[in-house]
Amino acid sequence: MIEITNLSKGFGSVKALDSMTCTIPDGCIFGMVGANGAGKSTLLRLISGIYLPDEGSVKINGEEVYDNPKAKENLVFSSDLMRLVSNGATLKRMAQFYASVYKNFSFEKFEHLAGIFNLKPSLKVRAMSKGMTKQSQTILSLACNTDIILFDETFDGLDPIARNVAKKLLYREVCDNGTTIIVTSHSLRELEDTCDQLAMVYKGKIVLQSDVSDLKTKLFKVQLAFDQEHSREDFTAAGLELLSFTKAGKVVTLILKGDRDDAEAKLNAMKPVLMEVLPLSLEEVFTYEMNVMGYKFDEID
Amino acid sequence: MKLFKAKASLFSGSYYKELFKELMVLGIVCAALQLFYGIMGEFGEGAPSSPLVLLFGFGMNRVHPDIFTLYFFASALSFLFTHVHRKNWDFRNSLPIAKRTMFACHFAAVMTWAAIIFIANFIGVFIGEGLRIAMSSTSLPDGFGMSAASMIKSVISGVTSYCIIVIIASVVNRVFSVLAAFGVVIGLPILFIGFEAYIRYRGMDTLELLFPLGINGLETFKLIVSILFALLLIVLAYIAYGKSRVETFQKPARTEAINVLIGLGVAACVGIIATIIFERGEFMHYYQSGPKYESSSWYLCIVYACIPMLIAYFIFMWISQRSFIRALKKLVFLPLVLVVFGAAILIAMIADKKWEKLDFSVENIDYVRIKDEHFGLNSQPDYYSYAFFSSGSQSRGSSKAFNVKHTDSAVLLSASTLAKNSKDNSDDGVSMLFERYIDSDYTKKIEITLKDGTKWGVTGNNYSGQATAKGRIALEDVEDNKEYIDALGSLDRFKNGKVIYPLNLGSEFNKTLLDELASLSSIERARIFISAASNNLGYHPCVYDSAPIFNSDEWSSSYGYTLTLASPTYDHVSLIYLGKHLPKSTELFMKLMDEKTRSHKDYGEFITMLKNASFAQLEGRFIVLKDGKILEHGLQLEGSASPVNSNASTDKEYSRMAGEICTLLAECIEAKEPIENASTVIGLDIYRFCKSLDKYYYYGEYSFEGITPKLFVGVSDDKAEKLMKLIVDFNEKYNAYNYDEIPFQYEFEIITQAVSDGRLKLYDQSGNELTVDDMVGMYKNGYQWFYVENGEQNFEQVFIMDIYQRLVEQGEDTL
Questions:
Q1: Fewest CB atoms within 10 A around its CB: which of A33, B25, B146, B492?
Q2: Please, which residues have CB within 8 angstroms of residue B781's CB and are 6 or more apart in sequence?
Q3: Of A50, A64, A96, the CB nearest to B94
Q4: Cβ-defined contact of B15 to A101 (cutoff 8 Å)
Q5: A11 vs B9, B17, B250: nearest CB
Q6: Mean of the pLDDT values across residues B362-378?
Q7: Cβ of A67 and B89 within 8 Å?
Q8: What is the pTM of this model?
Q9: A100, A40 Cβ separation under 8 angstroms
Q10: For residue A71, what are the CA distances in angstroms to A66, A103, B16?
């Protein structure tokens, strides 16, 4: 388990993280989303012990991470750059390097994964495309067989097939080995169907953290048509937790939070001519939640 | 308080292996170069029997610490880019290895490759030795000893540089700033220590004056300090990198203060250098090609230096801050650099006072020792190997030789003169700057121990012109100094000694020589020793000043064969010129050398080729000895096998004349008339004999002794004259300098006109005034240096362009 307590980190006058507190449970895929500069990468660097916190702490299984090789033994950080060894290094050479520092590194797994991505181990890192580099990072990180893997925007920019392969590999990793995977992205769409848990990082704070399934089931959109006009207050008076209300004549669109069956019963009681429950994308869920919390959440695409 | 929060292992074997692999390319390249230089270093200059040396055209030093230094510097840069550069930081620092462990592993990998490079050099020297022996080439002395000593020093300085870069890189974030800071850390102490010595032309730098430990003492002190310093730096680098923080990467350095300090250091370096340049007037001299400006007050020069200092500081700040406005704001710290100047001046003043008080009179000198001298004062390094070969001794440490305490008054007087000149003669300034820091081969360090026990190192300069000028000032009455002459002419030190150059002349020759020397007076012996030494000024430290002897035609144009006589323990070596003053020894020498040459296995082949002029090339000299006088002519000709020169193949006259010379010479040699009763003796010194292009060698198996094969025969006067006329005619036609092609002709004509008009007087090395004809004759023979009178009876050797420059300064720049 990763415990982040009152974590602050600043760079000169810029406060990248501001008293952040969060707990990341074991054996999940934890997604972190936020605009550029929100503090996602800084958080990953603090979790992986690259940065020293200004305040607060990051603990993995109860141990401080910074400058602590023991705590970092079960953690691999797949950074967004790959100028790792020498310029002429091949993927295999990289694997050897990782194997020299990660005692659980599996060459068998490495070769298997390379085969899945159709990457030759003899391929030079310098000659790889951006997408191939990210695939290589994924392969190497997974082959390390650590308890925690940190992916910093690793899947952004992968082609759909490669992304799907990568996602499946992450699922398998979590299911088979109980690995904790933290993935960051500036795009919710990238994480929507990947993560178990999602956190929204905004101006150095986690403003929202929840199970993805909870988020999707607790928020829903309803489109209604009435034979007479209804105001917002009519719906709140009916006991509905209303996040959004839009009206076009006698047609009303609502975003509701809470138990779906209960809400549907209350709405049916208002005798609509037509009622349709529509699915919400995760992006919409986040937007409405943030609006409720008073954040202006325009940055996320 | 704990230095590091969490525990970490000091070393990671697997990570070390990876770093070893990362350094592989650099290590292999350096090891290969060191191996190559190790091999090549065995072939000294003038050993053309090696095709590789021929390819390069010159001998190479055995040890190339530059490669070693380069290796450590490149290793440090590799660490900088792989472990400190921001693009690699995330990767390296996310690994489960503590930063300090990474440093330890990298350092270990660097040292492993250093050891491999070290070994490669020794293998190279070993191979080179083998090749050299196989090729019978000229040797250099004590290859392994020299390699080890200089490479250990290189390792220490390399480790120091490496650690300094790591430390700097741990607190400075930009590569430019790292390199600038490295330059400051290395350069500022050197400039700081030498600052006042530059300004006042003092013979010793501040460090030597503050620590009067003598050369050996100071060297040992410096070595110990450098080892301790290197160890300290290793620990500091370990801590500094372990504590380094990537978070500050958006700034030029971890803190603003560090960047300002580097900027001030850069400014201080530039300021000190500018002060020296302005003070010396060298800048104007070199860059305006005009007359040398008079030196200015160095206090004033510090003021001048403020402008380049300010510019350097501002440029550094602009580049490191990446902002013009921020750089402007940082100018507020610039006055702090004056503190550095203040400290430099204060220490310099203390040192200067100490220097002024030193008394280097002969009476106050206890004894003298010479650094890097294998046999005392009057030797060159090659002699060491000759002694080794002849004695079979295995004790070949130069430090042992250094421990010889010279106490005879001749040496003390020389050392006293040298120290006083070093103290008083401002002309030494410029050359000392180069000598001290570029470690020129043209200097020797002389340690003078005063009666109070303090030891002082003085640089002896072997630049012959300067030395001669000095000698004329200090030793003009040397011949009246009986104590000096007795000490110098003493034969006691050579009892049971050996002639170590050339080798194997036998005990009979040694006895003949010593007996003959003993029969001479002290002053005659002193003259013989001094004249031989003075004619080798180009190769010897000018501790003995031989200037008075230059005035004597009788001695300076003595017969041109030099021997080296060593004491039994090799602690003293004297050069001896053979000639009419030592007739028996000279005659025996000729006989022995002739026999040696004739008994050589290639002699028959050589004489056949000489007779038919069927060789490729012959270089040497032809000597005619008559009535104790020597006539000498260069001999350079090509035979019919010459594949490179068109003369022999296309010019029939050339072939005829060369053939005639060779045939006649061979006839004389084959006739083998004894020299004892001959009225004329001819000699042949063979510098180089080339059978064909693919066989290019020194003739003679004992050429490794560094002495060329010689043949001597008696001939009739007619034959000698005929041969000489042929050679002179041949040389005039084919080998003489072409006057029109000699550089500086215009300048030379200006000079000759000034001499012709009586406005300028020039002298030869004996102090004889030259006529225009003399000058033209010398000039045609390639002389470009003449002597001018510098004060009463003091002569200074001046290059032709400098003579012209002086005339220009006097407004005489037209014909």
A1: B492
A2: B737
A3: A50
A4: yes
A5: B250
A6: 62
A7: no
A8: 0.60
A9: no
A10: 8, 14, 21
CB A146 within 8 A of CB A113: no
Length of chain B in residues, anyone? 815
Alpha carbons within 13 angstroms on the beta-carbon side of residue B700 total 24
Q: Does B8 touch chain A (CB under 8 A)?
A: yes
- Give me Rg for the CA atoms of chain A: 23
Q: Which domains, ranges and CATH numbers included, belong to chain A?
A: 2-203 (3.40.50.300), 215-293 (3.30.70)
**Domains of chain B by residue range:** 1-171, 174-214+249-357, 362-581, 584-736, 741-809
pLDDT tens string B470-490: 333 333 445 566 766 776 677
What's the distance, Cα to Cα, between the start and end of chain B in Å?
A: 83
Residues 532 to 591 of B: which have CB under 8 A from any A CB? none
Q: Are B671 and B598 in contact (CB under 8 A)?
A: no
Which of B95, B238, B251 should we substitute to test contact with A (largest number of A Cβ atoms within 10 Å)?
Answer: B95
Q: Return the beta strands (E) in B384-469 as ranges.
A: 443-450, 455-461
Answer whether B94 sits within 8 Å of A51, measured CB to CB: no
Distance from B238 to chain A by nearest Cα, in Å? 14
Asked whether the beta carbons of residue B18 and residue A97 sit closer than 8 angstroms, the reply is yes
Query: What does the pLDDT look like over B661-675, one tens digit per residue?
Result: 999 999 999 988 888
Sign of the torsion formed by the C-alpha atoms of B569, B572, B573 and B576: negative
d(CA B265, CA A300): 49
Q: What angle do helix axes B143-171 and B214-242 make, rounded to 10 degrees?
A: 40
Q: B745-756 and B772-780 are packed helices; what angle lies between their axes, rounded to 10 degrees?
A: 160
Q: Say yes or no: A9 contacts chain B, CB-CB below 8 A.
A: yes
DSSP B139-200: P-S-HHHHHHHHHHHHHHHHHHHHHHHHHHHHHB-SHHHHHHHHHHHHHHHHHHHHHHHHHH
Mutation to test the A interface, candidates B2, B84, B91, most A Cβ within 10 Å: B91
Task: Establish, for the pair of chains A and B, how many residue pairs have beta carbons separated by less than 8 Å.
Answer: 88
Nearest CA in chain B to A48: B94
Rounded Cα distance, B623 and B630, in Å: 7
Q: Decide if B94 and A66 are in contact by the 8 Å CB cutoff.
A: no
Residues 6+ apart with CB under 8 A from B750: B804, B807, B812, B813, B814, B815
Question: Is the backbone peptide bond immediately before B502 cis, with ω within 30 degrees of 0?
Answer: yes
DSSP string, B496-515: T-EEEESS--HHHHHHHHHH
For B763, counting Cβ atoms within 10 Å of its Cβ (0-12 exposed, 13-18 middle, 19+ buried), the class is middle
Question: According to the model, what pLDDT value does residue B599 have?
Answer: 84
* Residues listed for chain A: 301
Per-position b or e across B389-411, b if 16+ CB within 10 A of its CB = bbbeeeebebeebbebebebbbb
Question: How would you classify the pairing of strands A197-202 and A29-33?
Answer: parallel
Backbone angles phi, psi at B512, to 5 degrees: -55, -45
pLDDT digits (tens, 9 = 90+) for B559-603: 467 777 777 766 566 677 777 778 888 889 888 888 888 887 778
What is the ipTM, given to two decimal places?
Answer: 0.83
Within the 19-38 window of chain B, which residues sit less than 8 Å (CB to CB) from chain A?
Answer: 22, 25
Supply A130's token pair.
């951006």
Pick B18's closest partner by Cβ from A51, A67, A100: A100
A200 versus B199: the higher-pLDDT residue is A200
Specify the pairing of strand A241-248 against strand A180-185.
unpaired
B84 contacts in chain A (CB < 8 Å): none
* Phi and psi angles of residue B300, each rounded to the nearest 5 degrees, phi first: -65, -35
